[in-house]
Amino acid sequence: MIKVGIIGGAGYTAGELLRILVGHPETDIAFVHSTSNAGNPIHSVHKDLVGDIEGDFTDQLQFDVDVIFICSGHGHSRSFVESNDIPSHVKIIDLSNDYRLKDHADGFVYGLPELNLEAIKTANKIANPGCFATAIQLAILPLAAKGWLTEDVHVNAITGSTGAGQNPSATSHFSWRNNNISIYKAFSHQHLGEINQSIQQLQDGYAGDVKFIPVRGNFTKGIFASVYTHCTVDEKEVVAAYKEFYKDAKYVHVLDYAPDMKQVVNTNKCLIHVEKHGDTVLVTSCIDNLIKGASGQAVQNMNLMFGLDQKVGLQLKSLGF
């Protein structure tokens, strides 16, 4: 069994991670760390886990585990790693953005399985991709792999309220978010760095920009991204390139019809659809922001690191219609 420790155990990503791990046949949850909830039952915060998980949150660290998932907020993971003497045999999967960029990676491998599969298998430390970054990269990378990106890439993507984290804010509480929609961080979102980094990995020298408009949605979970750019290649050839690129991907499915976001919520899937409009290619990509965009992908990476099939413990079903 893989002994697991979770740091920052009270947030949304940790809750989703726990829901997955309690059903994972190869893991044993050794501890769930939270300084603010130390001594409280885990199910007192993650209330749906009543009857599924026993034990309390702890503020004590223990490193007699095989892997640690860091679910702390952005900026806290690096300080945690640097201030604790974590044994070299303990694998680390960080869900923040602290180690995603190569210039600051400190030995962390960027954990997008559809891009860095072999490197993940031998890695000791993983920087789990961002949620928007996952949906957008999976929409773009087949074009980059073919060298077909010649102009700017335009992205409009809408995300659920859980993407803002568990702590309430002026733009996340129900009375503001419900029946509402708004733009934030236009052209400046923090995930752009990792998106551009991955494009350059496949199409070195790409000189265009990713013009990204993030949108707050009035739903809880999910990301729906519409991505378009100039492309003169025939539609059949473009679709064939996507299907070839993802032929061995466990969770990316290239559809012959436009997907609905509801198909992916509560799953680790990414659904992709490609169509041409003159010399413009439009790619639709949708994921669950907390699963394929965070905790599900983290478990997918853990499975790879420990030599398991990627799908172990991730046979999750959508909520349906």
UniProtKB/TrEMBL annotation:
Subcellular location: Cytoplasm
Domain Semialdehyde dehydrogenase NAD-binding span(s) in chain numbering: 3-123
Class of the enzyme per the UniProt entry, highest EC level: oxidoreductase
InterPro entries, per database record: AGPR, AGPR_AS, AGPR_dimerisation_dom, AGPR_type-1, NAD(P)-bd_dom_sf, Semialdehyde_DH_NAD-bd
CDD domains: AGPR_1_C (cd23934), AGPR_1_N (cd17895)
Catalytic activity: N-acetyl-L-glutamate 5-semialdehyde + phosphate + NADP(+) = N-acetyl-L-glutamyl 5-phosphate + NADPH + H(+)
The entry's keywords: Amino-acid biosynthesis, Arginine biosynthesis, Cytoplasm, NADP, Oxidoreductase
Documented EC number(s): 1.2.1.38
Location, primary (coarse class): cytoplasm
UniProt pathway: Amino-acid biosynthesis; L-arginine biosynthesis; N(2)-acetyl-L-ornithine from L-glutamate: step 3/4
Domain of life: Bacteria
Entry's Gene Ontology molecular function annotations: N-acetyl-gamma-glutamyl-phosphate reductase activity
A Pfam family it matches: Semialdhyde_dhC_1
Active site: C131
Matches recorded under NCBIfam families: argC
Family: Belongs to the NAGSA dehydrogenase family. Type 1 subfamily.
Function: Catalyzes the NADPH-dependent reduction of N-acetyl-5-glutamyl phosphate to yield N-acetyl-L-glutamate 5-semialdehyde.
Record's protein name: N-acetyl-gamma-glutamyl-phosphate reductase
Encoding gene, per UniProt annotation: argC
